[in-house]
């Protein structure tokens, strides 16, 4: 495995873990802001964890992820509630 490939995998993993990493208390602001930019990758987790975030740098990004999560939850519920006879 090349170094570039390994670096790409590590970066992808950190982006995927961004909603969880934002719960860390001592995360530097620039790193916190970078992780906030990757929240759209996993909005359902953001919906579950955002109240645990000790600090928010860009509230617009958090709000965008929360709205997307709510839409997904609502859409999933309405589709799943339809029954065929």
Strand percentage: under 5%
What average pLDDT do the residues reach?
89
Number of strands: 0
Structural class: mainly alpha
What number of domains? Answer: 1
**Major sheet:** none
Tell me the series of helices and strands, N- to C-terminal.
Answer: HHHHH
Can I get a quick summary?
The protein is mostly helical and 85 residues long. It has helices at 3-16, 18-21, 29-36, 43-49, 59-81.
Task: Walk me through this protein's architecture.
This protein has 85 residues and is mainly alpha-helical. It has one domain (3-81). It is 66% helix and 0% strand. It is built from five helices and no strands. Helix 4 (43-49) crosses helix 5 (59-81). It starts with a helix and ends with a helix. Residues 79-85 have low confidence and may be disordered.
Question: What topology does this entry show?
Answer:
Layout: H1 3-16, H2 18-21, H3 29-36, H4 43-49, H5 59-81
Please tag this protein with its features.
disordered C terminus; single chain; 85 residues; mainly alpha
């Amino acid at each position: 495995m090349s170094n570039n490939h390994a670096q790409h995998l590590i970066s992808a993993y950190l982006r995927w873990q961004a909603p969880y990493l934002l719960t860390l208390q001592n995360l530097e602001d620039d790193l916190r802001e970078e992780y906030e930019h990757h929240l759209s990758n996993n909005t359902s987790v953001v919906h579950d964890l955002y109240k645990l975030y000790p600090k928010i740098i860009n509230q617009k990004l958090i709000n965008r992820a929360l709205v997307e999560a709510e839409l997904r939850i609502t859409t999933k519920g309405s589709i799943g509630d339809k029954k065929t006879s």
